Amino acid sequence: MDCPIRICPYCIKEGKKSTLNVPQKLDPGMGHFIKEFFDEEGGYHNHDSKKKCFNYECSNGHEFTVFVFDKCKNSGCLFGYEDEIEIKTKKELEEENLKLFKELKKTF
Q1: Strand, helix or coil at 78?
Q2: Where on the phi/psi map is residue 80: left (φ > 0), alpha (ψ -120 to 50), or beta?
Q3: Which of 21, 74, 92, 106 could be a cystine partner for 88, CB 3.0 to 4.6 Å?
Q4: Structure-model confidence comparison of residues 16 and 29, the more confident one
């Protein structure tokens, strides 16, 4: 299982211990690009902009979603490293969705 997180980051901040469910993997949909190229030294790169999404919930009730890019297979490339991981709480995602819904509603 390629789970990007194995310990609840919110529990770590709060100094608590918890169990973490094996996340439900979501497909964020279309609209991504795949950039394949050879660098100056002939090294092959494959940069897929599609994010993988994982929904988590820990035993202390923290709910959050993690978005991850696949790492480029070229060992010297930084695309897709840990700094590409994004964590959002359920509340943050609901607020973003509400904002998007309101913006879409204006167009109709």
Answers
A1: coil
A2: left
A3: 92
A4: 16
Residue type, 76: G
CA distances (Å), origin 56, targets 20, 37, 61:
7, 34, 10
Q: Which whole number is the average pLDDT over 6-31?
A: 78
Q: Outline where 19-89 has alpha helix (H).
A: none
Provide the whole-model pTM: 0.57
Q: Are 43 and 76 in contact (CB under 8 A)?
A: yes
Return the number of other C-beta atoms located less than 10 Å from residue 85's C-beta. 15
Please state the domain extents for the chain. Answer: 9-106
Between 9 and 49, the more confident residue is 9
